[in-house]
Design brief:
mainly beta, Jelly Rolls, Immunoglobulin-like, five-stranded antiparallel sheet, disordered N terminus
Length: about 325
């Protein structure tokens, strides 16, 4: 009986507390809008390896093809624009960049899908490479119930998933932090050249199911046996690369401190600044008499401080 109660308490603790950030636009969300000033670059080229439209029945076809066929590779390059390339079951795309990505403070890049709601979510794993040969996965987590298969157009609670691309609706990127990837001698986090997006086969059938970093089956819409089946890749936006991780915080003599910050942030070098959240909302407009802002009541995450007379912004990491 004691063992049963212990297991029950552990189960309640996990289900009650292991929740992840909510949908775009809700306080605490990590979604980043496509037009956020945090993005400094976008994928410049893409190579796609299409998966079957139904991995459980590889003879199934749509529009004459047994693999996903919607979109073209260039649809996944440049800024997020809702033009997508579909990957199919377990298909993947390799994205390349003009400047290698690098691990900076907070999130380093974001992946965009084209979901038309906050709950119809087609998911994908994310892997990174610095040599194009050895790939390392960002650990992902799914608390989605697996007793019933999510239907082809079924719903998923975004608060049940973490570090899976496709968590947020169209025009809002799911952010990733290179520091989450385990260190490895074959990975240079200061020089990531390829990001690989791999469709999650959402089947709960153990023969085809795919699992998160802790071995749980990931349940998402399945089957999606049509030309646009699987993950629909829109874009990958860069937050940190080798051009900005090695620079001073500002090129126009503005300095901020402390950063990361848990309470009051101070700045020097500019009379008027604005502070933005990661999704582009203005949370503070300073005047010539202001040189500080209290973040103690703000949700931890990534913010940006921009001088009104400058085109650049400094990234602020808020912690607790």
């Amino acid at each position: 009986m004691r063992l049963f109660l212990l297991i029950l308490l552990i189960t309640v603790h996990v289900s009650g507390h292991a929740q992840y950030p909510p949908a775009a636009g809700i306080p605490g969300s990590t979604a980043i809008a496509y037009d956020s000033i945090c993005f400094i670059d976008w994928a410049s080229s893409c190579t796609v390896f299409r998966g079957f439209i139904n991995i459980a029945d590889t003879t199934a076809t749509d529009l004459g093809f047994n693999r996903a066929s919607y979109g073209i590779e260039t649809d996944a390059t440049g800024i997020a624009d809702n033009l997508v390339v579909s990957l199919g079951d377990s298909g993947y795309a390799d994205l390349y960049f003009s400047i290698p990505l690098a691990d900076g403070p907070g999130f380093d890049f974001a992946v965009f899908e084209n979901s038309f709601t906050d709950t119809f979510l087609e998911l994908a794993f994310v892997e990174v490479s610095s040599d194009g040969e050895n790939f390392f996965r960002v650990p992902s987590y799914s608390l989605i119930d697996t007793t019933v298969q999510t239907a082809s157009f079924g719903n998923t609670n975004p608060e049940k998933i973490h570090n899976l691309a496709g968590k947020y609706r169209q025009y809002y990127g799911t952010p990733f932090d290179l520091s989450d990837v385990a260190d490895n001698p074959f990975l240079r986090k200061d020089s990531v050249t390829v990001i690989r997006i791999i469709d999650v086969v959402g089947s709960i059938d153990p023969q085809f199911a795919q699992r998160d970093a802790e071995g749980r089956i990931i349940n998402d819409p399945y089957p999606t046996a049509f030309a646009s089946g699987g993950f629909d890749l829109d874009a990958v936006g860069v937050i940190h690369n080798r051009s900005n991780t090695a620079m001073a915080e500002f090129q126009n003599n503005i300095r901020v401190f402390p950063n990361p910050v848990s309470s009051v942030l101070y700045w020097t070098g500019s009379d008027e600044v604005r502070i933005f959240s990661a999704d582009g909302q203005t949370i503070f407009e300073g005047t010539e008499n202001d040189n500080s802002f209290d973040f103690s009541e703000m949700v931890p995450g990534l913010y940006f401080l921009k001088a009104l007379n400058s085109a650049t912004a400094v990234k602020i990491v808020v912690t607790r």
